[in-house]
Amino acid sequence: MDSPAAARTGTLIVGAGATGLATAAALSERGDADYLVLEADREIGGWCKTVKKDGFVWDYSGHFFHFKRPAIEQWLRDRMPGQRIRVVDKKSFIAFGGTRVDFPFQKNIHQLPQADFIECLHDLYFARSSDVKRDPAPETNFLEMLHARFGKGICDRFLVPYNEKLYACDLSTLDKDAMGRFFPHADLTDIVRNMKQADNASYNATFTYPEGGAIEYIKALASAVRPGGIALGERLVAVDLGRKVARTTSREIRFERLVSSAPFDRFASICALDHDPATWDYNKVLVFNLGFDRKGQQGVNWTYYPSRDTVFYRVGWYDNIFDTDRMSLYVEIGFPKDAAIDVPATRERVLRDLEREGLVTGQRLVAEHSVVLDPAYVHITARSLAEHRRLASRLADARVWSIGRYGGWTYCSIEDNIVEARALVASWK
Ligand SMILES: Cc1cc2nc3c(=O)[nH]c(=O)nc-3n(C[C@H](O)[C@H](O)[C@H](O)COP(=O)(O)OP(=O)(O)OC[C@H]3O[C@@H](n4cnc5c(N)ncnc54)[C@H](O)[C@@H]3O)c2cc1C
Q1: pTM for the complete prediction?
Q2: Using only C-alpha atoms, what is the Rg of the chain?
C-alpha cells in the first residue's frame, strides 16, 4: 500500500471527537502544524455532538461537565466567546417503588421504606463490619466488589439491577474497578453519618452546561486546530505499521506518528494486530431526546431507574437546566453489543413507561430525535486491560497510540480525554 504519490503528515490523528481535537490543539499550541485529523463522519464532535430541533437543545446523550482542573476549564471558556455557561447544583434521584431516593442510593438507604431500610442496613453491616469480616475474601470482579462493600440488600435493590440495565451484561465479567473514580464509594461510617447529616457530594456535585449544548466545548477545542487541519467524511480503513502508511476511504497517507481515538476493537483490526475480537465487549446505548409542549417535573436533573419493569435506566431533564417552560428529556436504554435494536418498538415502550412512571402526565410530544451510541460503555475486564496493555506496547514501538474513551478502552470524561491527549503530545520530544 506504499506508493510514491502518497500524501504525508507528521502526525495523523484519527477522529475529530474530544480526544482527536485535543491532540491537534496540543500540537498547534506547541507550534507544530504538521498534522491532519481524519474524521469518518461529516461533522466534528464524536459522541459529544449536540442536536437542535424546534427550539430544543439536545446532546447525543446528556453530557454534563465537572472539571477537576480549573486551567482546562478556563482554556475552554476562553475559546467560547459569547457562550453562556450554566453552573448547576446537581439534583439526581433513584426511582424506588413509586417514590424516590437521593443519589447515591447506598448513602441514602434511610430514605427507603422501613423494611427495605432494615434489610439494607443489616446486610451492609454484616458485609462491612470488621467485627464480622476479619479476613474478607478478595474482590475479583465488579459484582463481588458490590456485594463485599455494600451487602445483598443494597445490591438487590439498586446496584445490581441498575448496573445490569446500564452495562447490559453479567456484572461478574467486569473488572472490580470497571467504573474507576465514577463509582460513588461509601463506607459504613459515611453511610451511617449521612442518616443524620446529608453529605451526598459526588464527583459531579455541581456541573456546567453551555447554552449551545456540549458541542460548544468541542468547538472550543476545534478553534485551536489549524485551518484545513480536519478532513471530514474520510475514514481510516487500514494501517501498515511497518511502512507507516495509512489507507483511508480516499487516499494513502504516510505518517511519522499516528494517534487514534477510534474504538480499539476496530482499530486493532485496522492495524491487522493479532488479537482475539472476543476480548472487546461493550454496551450500546439507545438515546431518545424528547420535547414536549409543556413543563413536567421540576427540581430534578436526572433520575436512575433500577426496576427491570421499566425499559430505561436513566432519564434527564434539559428544561430544568435551561429554566425553560417545555419539558425536554433524554432517555437512555442499554443493550448488549450484538443486540438488534428495534427503535420504533422501543420508542413505544419508552413512551408507555414515561407515563407509568409519572413523568409524562398529559404533555404532548412535539419534537424528537434518537441515536444509538455504539459503543457507549466499554466493558473493562481483566482480559481487556491485559490485552490493551500488550497491544498498546506493540503499537508504541511503531509510534502509534490509541487513546481516549474508546481508543483506550476505558471509562472517562472529556476532561480526561483532554488531559490524556495533552500528556501524550508533551511526551514527544
Ligand atoms: C451515555 C454517555 C454519557 C456521557 N456523559 C458524559 C458527561 O456527562 N460528561 C463527560 O465529560 N463525558 C461524558 N461521556 C464521555 C464522553 O462522551 C467521551 O469521553 C468523549 O465523547 C470521547 O471522545 P473521544 O474523542 O475519545 O471518542 P468519540 O467521541 O467516540 O470520537 C471518536 C471519533 O472518531 C471517529 N472515528 C472512528 N473510527 C474512525 C475511522 N476509522 N476513521 C476516521 N474516524 C473515525 C468517530 O466518527 C468519532 O467522531 C459520556 C459518554 C456516554 C456514552
Answers
A1: 0.94
A2: 23
What contacts 192, CB < 8 A, 6 or more positions away? none
Torsion angle of alpha carbons 271, 272, 278, 282, nearest 10°?
20
Residues 135, 202 contacting (CB under 8 angstroms) = no
Task: State in Å: Cα 276 to ligand 1 middle.
Answer: 23
For the Cβ of 40 lying below 6 angstroms from any atom of ligand 1, the answer is: yes
- Which of 204, 198, 203 is closest to 102 using CA atoms? 198
Provide the residue type at 60 as one letter: Y
Q: Report the residue among 374, 405, 419, 424 best suited for mutation to probe ligand 1: largest number of ligand atoms under 8 A from its CB.
A: 405
Q: What is the DSSP letter of 121?
A: H
DSSP-derived secondary structure for 329-354: EEEEEEEETT----HHHHHHHHHHHH
- Give pLDDT tens digits along the chain (429 positions): 445 457 999 999 999 999 999 999 999 999 999 999 999 999 999 999 999 999 999 999 889 998 999 999 999 999 999 999 999 999 999 999 999 999 999 999 999 999 999 999 999 998 876 555 556 677 889 999 999 889 999 999 999 999 999 999 999 999 888 887 777 777 788 888 888 877 656 546 889 999 999 999 999 999 999 999 999 999 999 999 999 999 999 999 999 999 999 999 999 999 999 999 999 999 999 999 999 999 999 999 999 999 999 999 999 999 999 999 999 999 999 999 999 999 999 999 999 999 999 999 999 999 999 999 999 999 999 899 999 999 999 999 999 999 999 999 999 999 999 999 999 999 998
**Gap between the Cα atoms of 410 and 386, Å rounded:** 13
Best substitution site from 21, 23, 48 to test ligand 1's pocket, by max atoms within 8 Å of Cβ? 48
Q: 3-class SS at 242? A: coil
With H, G, I as helix, E, B as strand and everything else as coil, classify residue 198: coil
Cβ within 8 Å of residue 213, ≥6 positions away: 50, 51, 52, 57, 58, 59
Return d(Cα 303, Cα 58) in angstroms, integer: 17
Q: How far is CA 173 from the centre of its chain?
A: 19
